[in-house]
Amino acid sequence: MPERLKEALEFARNTPYTNFATEYEGQPHVRLMHWSRIDDDFTVWLSTKAESGKVKHIEKNPKVCMIFVDEAGYVRVYGTAEIVNDPRMKEELWEDQW
Fold first, then answer.
1. Partners of 46 in the beta sheet?
2. What is the DSSP code string of 24-67?
3. Mean pLDDT by 10 residues, the chain (98 residues)
4. What is the helix (H) or strand (E) element at residue 73, kind and residue range?
C-alpha cells in the first residue's frame, strides 16, 4: 500500500465522524455520520436505518463522497456505496443510540 494511502487511512480512522454526501434530485445532501468500521482497503462501513433518506439516495445514485476533518487537515474519499442488509453485519456494527 502506498505511504500516502496509509497516512490517509490512519487519519480517517482517528477521526470519529465523516461528512457523508449523497445526491438526490440534482442536489447534494451532506450529513455528519459516525462511521462503524474502516477496512484496510478503505471500505468505510456506515450504519443507518433502512427507511432513512440516505438509503433512498444511494438506491437512486450510489456515488458518494466522504470527508474526514480535524484541526490538522482533511481526507476526502469518493466512492460507490452499496446497501448491505446482512443480519451478521448489523449485529457487529449497529449501536443502539442510532
1. 35
2. ETTEEEEEEEEEEEE-TT--EEE---TTSHHHHHHHH--EEEEE
3. 93 97 95 96 92 95 97 96 92 76
4. strand 73-80
* Location of C-alpha cell 456505496: 81
CA-wise closest residue to 17 among 80, 96, 74: 74
Sign of the CA dihedral with 5 first, then 6, 9, and 14 last? negative
Give CA separation, 28 vs 8, 40, 67, 79, in Å: 24, 28, 14, 15
Q: How far apart are CA 72 and CA 91, in angstroms?
A: 34
**Across the strands, what pairs with 24?**
27
| Residue type at 95 in one-letter notation | E
pTM score? 0.88
d(CA 78, CA 85): 22
- CB distance 83 to 64 below 8 Å: no
